[in-house]
Design brief:
- This protein is an alpha+beta fold.
- The chain folds into 2 domains: 2-80 and 191-197, 3-Layer(aba) Sandwich (Glutaredoxin); 89-188, Glutathione S-transferase Yfyf (Class Pi), Chain A, domain 2.
- Helix content is 47%, strand content 9%.
- It has helices at 12-21, 66-76, 89-105, 110-113, 119-140, 153-162, 176-186, 189-197; strands at 2-5, 26-31, 36-37, 54-56, 62-64.
- The protein has a 5-stranded mixed beta sheet with strand order 3-2-1-4-5, covered by helices on one side.
- A hairpin with a 4-residue loop joins strand 2 and strand 3.
- Helix 3 (89-105) runs parallel beside helix 6.
- The longest helix is centred in the middle third of the chain and has 22 residues, at 119-140.
- It is globular, with a radius of gyration of 17 Å.
Length: 202
């Protein structure tokens, strides 16, 4: 199994999940600006969409889109309890979180990474994201993780997206609950492994 990733990109989410699951995999670094695979190779040949993550199974099957990938990984290692069982209401609630994070948070950051986005538009975008984070804080409350006391694939995704606030001018001191949450997730040994492997921490 291979995970195609770019350091700090949304592929950090399945990278964390793979390490948490204990599933054996090979990380493959991608230069997204050049669309080249580390060591040589056209990344478009792997994913015509041109972006990470891509999970390549041993039989050559490829999965794209983070929310699908992390659920697949979780289902390969049920003992890790990274996702509730399929068909349960808890699983659909997890999917609800994944859909919210991908549509209402992840994609809202895109204009902030685009140098051509006017400053006024970026300010409005930060305000929109702030409103979403206000809602996340309400849902998180005093829980350790998004779905309760167990770390899940949704936490790996939210942690990944919230890491982008540092480089996009969003001040996290507004949300002490999220700051505490981020520290809790970051302290997990497998999360540290993923961050170090991507060169995000020393």
């Amino acid at each position: 199994m291979k995970l195609y990733f770019a350091p700090g990109a949304c592929s950090l989410s399945p990278h964390i999940v793979l390490r948490e699951s204990g599933v054996t995999f090979t990380p493959v670094k991608v230069n997204l600006k050049a669309h080249q695979i580390d060591g040589g190779g056209d990344f478009y040949a792997v994913n015509p969409k041109g972006y990470v993550p891509v999970l390549e199974l041993d039989d050559g099957t490829r999965l794209t889109e983070g929310p699908a990938i992390v659920q697949y990984i979780a289902d390969q290692a049920p003992a890790a309890k990274l996702a509730p069982a399929n068909g349960t209401i808890a699983r659909y609630q997890l999917q609800e979180w994944l859909n919210f994070i991908t549509a209402e948070l992840h994609k809202q950051f895109s204009p902030l990474f685009d140098a051509s986005t006017p400053d006024e538009a970026k300010t409005k975008q930060r305000d929109k994201i702030a409103g979403r984070l206000d809602w996340v804080v309400q849902q998180l409350g005093d829980k350790e993780y998004l779905t309760g006391s167990n770390f899940s694939v949704a936490d790996a995704y939210l942690f990944t997206v919230l890491n982008w606030t540092k480089s996009t001018g969003i001040d996290m001191t507004r949300w002490p609950v999220l700051q505490t949450y981020m520290k809790r997730v970051a302290a997990r040994p497998h999360v540290q492994e993923a961050l170090k492997a991507e060169g995000l921490v020393k």
